[in-house]
Design goal:
Largest sheet: 6 strands, mixed
Helix content: 25-40%
Bound molecules: 2'-monophosphoadenosine-5'-diphosphate
Structural class: alpha/beta
Order of helices and strands: EHEHEEHEEHEHEHEHEEHEHH
CATH class of the largest domain: Alpha Beta
Strand order of the largest sheet: 2-1-3-5-6-4
């Protein structure tokens, strides 16, 4: 019988996940189909009951449901519980189990371009949901020092304080981070500054960037944000958000099927969709 998968969110029309996963099902000759489902927040409970009733094999969860889905599931993986957000659900013999592959996907993508990531001194810019997923996954993976800078310091403090994995963190204002930038081996930009309607803007200046640093931005559209542009001009290696997007999908696909797909092929598919 054909297996059914979905991504639930609102809005959802522009999600690239259906094309990504449907291509993977075809390539792996699996009789499965993946649909985008627009679910309004007030309908989430009923929608999850409906997905259970039709025996959905698995689904992705995106904005605005990543936190609200949690009490509706039967089990939550410890990392997703710590992060406080679920982006992937697996139907394990009738039990809906929630995972978070955003941070682990980020790490898998980072490893492609940065060796020994867990020995690097890191700076995360931003303290929202994306920063949280990445910070907790990096801490769980053994990174010892991850500083955070954010416009609102209280949010950075809360993020660091609630992390259950041992990691050393200094919390910085944007201005402090600009001054101390030379200390960092790896800088991770997680704010929405750089994508529409903030194209061409930067959350901070890279004037004091270390020549050996690596700069990553989780935005992939546009493919080169102003931060990455400046980092490249300063001669350092950079990575945009395509790797994170592809690997969060690849790790979800692996949880559903046991198959870890070819990430290079997935990147081509996403780039084609972006046009
Ligand atoms: P996401 O889930 O994508 O991380 P989010 O939880 O809304 O989104 O977090 C957005 C991040 O971008 C936060 O770090 C936010 O800073 P604040 O915590 O101070 O709000 C940051 N951000 C968004 N707009 C910003 C702006 N105009 N200037 C500086 N930081 C901004």
């Amino acid at each position: 019988m054909q297996q059914f998968f979905a991504v639930i969110g609102d809005p959802i029309a522009h999600s690239m996940s259906p094309a990504m996963h449907n291509e993977l099902f075809q390539l792996n000759e699996l009789d499965a189909y993946y649909l985008p489902l627009r679910i309004k927040s007030e309908d989430l409970r009923v929608a999850v009951a409906g997905l259970r009733a039709i025996g959905i094999a698995g689904f992705n969860v995106t904005v605005p449901h990543k936190e609200a889905i949690m009490p509706l599931l039967d089990e939550i993986d410890p990392l997703a519980k710590a992060i406080g957000a679920v982006n992937t659900v697996v139907n394990q013999a009738g039990k809906l189990v929630g995972y978070n592959t955003d941070g682990t996907g980020y790490i898998a993508g980072l490893k492609e371009d940065l060796q020994d990531f867990n020995q690097k001194k890191m700076l995360i810019i931003g303290a929202g949901g994306a920063a949280r997923g990445i910070y907790y996954a990096l801490a769980e993976a053994g990174v010892e020092e991850i500083d955070i800078c954010n416009r609102t310091l209280d949010k950075a403090r809360k993020l660091a304080m609630e992390c259950p994995y041992p990691v050393k963190s200094t919390l910085l204002t944007i201005q402090e981070a600009e001054q101390l930038l030379a200390q960092y081996d790896c800088i991770i930009q997680t704010t929405s500054i750089g994508m529409s309607p903030h194209i061409g803007e930067k959350p901070l200046s890279l004037k004091k960037l270390n020549q050996h640093a690596f700069v990553s931005d989780i935005i992939y559209n546009p493919h080169e944000t102003a931060v990455l542009h400046e980092a490249k001009q300063r001669g350092v290696n950079v990575q945009n958000g395509l790797n994170m997007f592809v690997y969060q999908g690849a790790l979800a696909f692996e949880k559903w099927t046991g198959i870890l797909p070819d990430s290079e092929r997935m990147k081509k598919n996403v780039l084609q969709q972006l046009g």
